[in-house]
């Protein structure tokens, strides 16, 4: 067994102005042994030099440089090199809360669960609090099952928190045969989610903020429309199919509804033949899944689905 408690995986691309705060937030963690694995994904600014400087001072920092291949590939590189007993992910423009590791490690050890999930703050680039990713209080400080996880994932205000991999502490054993889907450059976490949750038996939910997400203009998830954004409804339909197979029909319907809304939006935004073709494939998949779920829908959802099928061909 490794004498390192936590492997912190930080993919980074052109974040020379943010990476220092990110790394410092890890180095300030107390009462925990950890290694920091920084994967420089082909940065063209001074990011790599900044990271190498930290590594020259701190022996528990490892910097790996690779050609630009995207977030999924960079995280996989980190997983391939991790030796800690537990795994956590940190985006390079975000930072940890004080004592986050101690709180998560204590919870995962004491409760013998596979994953600990914490809350997060959303912070602007000038340091203002924009929002809080909270877990409903009736679920905090308790162990939940995969079914309850999916129930929380289907709640609008909780969906993001129960989809992203950051802000969580994972047992390393979960990742033994599990990796992010290479080549995906948007919705990487959602694509992985069904397989990830299938590898877990139990989760513990903290009522502490352990993570700070920086909301910046440069964030890919908030940029203008591009072809990769079609991964969002695609990954949700994949999750929906997984939920149907496990007879979680109520949660599958909620995931399906979100995907349908995104498909309608993408239809309006798509402006070339290739994109329209892919959106049409997503529409066809959503109709197939809607047919599978129809008998489990309430009247309102059934009407929505029938209208979707009838109106969509004219919705351009």
What features would you describe in this structure?
Residues 7-135 form the Glycosyltransferase 2-like domain. This is Glycosyl transferase family 2. InterPro entries: Glyco_trans_2-like, Nucleotide-diphossugar_trans. Pfam families: Glycos_transf_2 (PF00535). One of its GO terms (molecular function) is glycosyltransferase activity. Strands 1, 2, 3, 4, 5, 6, 7, 8, 9 and 10 form a 10-stranded mixed beta sheet that branches. It is built from 10 helices and 10 strands. It starts with 5 loop residues before the first strand and ends in a 5-residue tail after the last helix. The chain is of the alpha/beta class. It has helices at residues 19-27, 47-57, 71-81, 100-111, 146-153, 188-198, 231-245, 249-269, 273-293, 299-311, and strands at 6-12, 34-41, 61-66, 86-89, 95-96, 115-124, 129-133, 142-144, 168-171, 203-215. The chain is globular. It has 2 domains: 6-222, Spore Coat Polysaccharide Biosynthesis Protein SpsA, Chain A (Alpha-Beta Complex); 227-314. Helix content is 42%, strand content 20%. The mean pLDDT is 92.
């Amino acid at each position: 067994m490794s004498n390192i408690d936590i492997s912190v995986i930080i993919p980074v691309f052109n974040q020379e102005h943010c990476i220092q705060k990110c790394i410092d937030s890890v180095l300030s963690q107390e009462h925990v042994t950890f290694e920091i694995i920084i994967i420089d994904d082909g940065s063209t600014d001074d990011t790599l030099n900044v990271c190498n400087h930290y590594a020259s001072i701190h022996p528990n920092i490892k910097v790996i440089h690779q050609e630009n291949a995207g977030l999924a590939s960079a995280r996989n590189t980190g997983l391939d090199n991790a030796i800690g007993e537990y795994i956590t992910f940190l985006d390079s423009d975000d930072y940890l809360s004080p004592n986050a590791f101690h709180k998560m490690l204590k919870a995962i050890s004491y409760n013998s669960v596979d994953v600990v999930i914490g809350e997060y703050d959303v912070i602007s680039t000038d340091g203002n609090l924009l929002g809080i990713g909270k877990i409903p209080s009736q679920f905090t400080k308790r162990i939940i099952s995969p079914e309850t996880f999916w129930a929380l994932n289907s709640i609008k205000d909780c969906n993001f928190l129960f989809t992203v991999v950051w802000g969580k502490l994972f047992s390393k054993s979960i990742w033994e045969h599990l990796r992010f889907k290479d080549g995906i450059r948007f919705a990487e976490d959602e694509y992985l989610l069904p397989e990830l949750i299938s590898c877990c038996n139990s989760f513990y939910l903290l009522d502490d903020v352990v993570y700070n997400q920086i909301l910046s203009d440069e964030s890919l998830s908030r940029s203008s429309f591009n072809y990769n954004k079609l991964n969002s409804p695609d990954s949700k339909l994949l999750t929906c199919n997984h939920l149907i197979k496990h007879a979680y029909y109520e949660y599958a319907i909620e995931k399906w509804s979100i995907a349908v809304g995104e498909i309608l939006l993408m239809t309006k935004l798509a402006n070339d033949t290739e994109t329209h073709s892919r959106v049409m494939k997503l529409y066809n998949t959503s109709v197939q899944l809607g047919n599978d779920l129809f008998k489990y829908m309430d009247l309102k959802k059934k009407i929505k689905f029938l209208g979707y099928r009838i109106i969509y061909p004219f919705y351009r």
